[in-house]
Amino acid sequence: MEYRNLGKSGLKVPVLSFGAGTFGGSGPLFGAWGNTDIDEARRLVDICLEAGVNLFDTADVYSNGASEEVLGAAIKGRRHDVLISTKAALPTGGGPNDWGSSRHRLIRSVDAALSRLGTDHIDIFQLHAFDASTPVEEVLSTLDMLVKAGKLRYIGVSNFSGWQIMKSLAVSDRQGWSRYVANQVYYSLLGRDYEWDLMPLGEDQGLGALVWSPLGWGRLTGKISRGKPLPEGSRLHATAEFGPPVEDEHLYRVVDALQIVAEETGKTVAQVAINWLTRRPTVSSVIIGARNEEQLRQNLGAIGWSLTDTQMATLDAASAVTAPYPHFPYRRQDGFARLSPPLAG
Fold first, then answer.
1. What does residue 150 show for φ and ψ, rounded to 5 degrees?
2. What is the CATH code for 3-337?
């Protein structure tokens, strides 16, 4: 297993981490993902640790806290062997203080997560969304207090825009408060929007990407191809409305390229898609999920080998889309391009 620094922090994280969204799965979204019980979760954790995957990601909204509870039970007795990443900010109830990132909500959310996970600290705590109703200063001072209290080790964000992150970092720097070092983002061959603003920001400001849905919301598992209908058992039938949208022709263009590279490498479509992500700038860890041991072992096979530069270029070309303004001049015109050097690989 390869380990990388999480952004500019000193924390080493595995290039593959495990997403516990299937643990205790219930409801229209998480129930469709899977319903892993404690015994099954222990087995998946065993396999992960054997492979060197020691970072496990969850959130308070995953099955109303059941994911955190099952993960906590699955790692009981080996807390020192694992890193826990969890998130809060999205609504968990109907009350006026059951959502957001106020001081009241954050303290309560962190304490509740610690209880469900059966631990005294969270290694990586991320805000699940930007709360426009709470002053940034209130959010960051509270997170800094929780870090100093030993309840949180590192902090980050998820689903933030570039200006929201930059404003927060500026306030942290000005006040001397704990800084965000992680950005949990959607990034895949089907969705490369991360590259326009958030990736350059991450490189400049030292935020490591923790990538969620690396298989494009289940579309790059190898079960979908041009002229082949969506399998009856696919979770996309029930969950597509919750995930990132994609146009059919773009999907098939990417899948066509993945199939070519998969044949060349002797790997699966999913393994190639994940391996491509591990080669991208600012990516600290790619979060993989699995409903069972077979899926987990397949996903773990995405590392330990490398795509060639030619294969990377094939996938880059197939997944490329027209850059939005103000980015397209820097991609199309030499004068603009000189002012925007490429990101470090």
1. 85, 5
2. 3.20.20.100
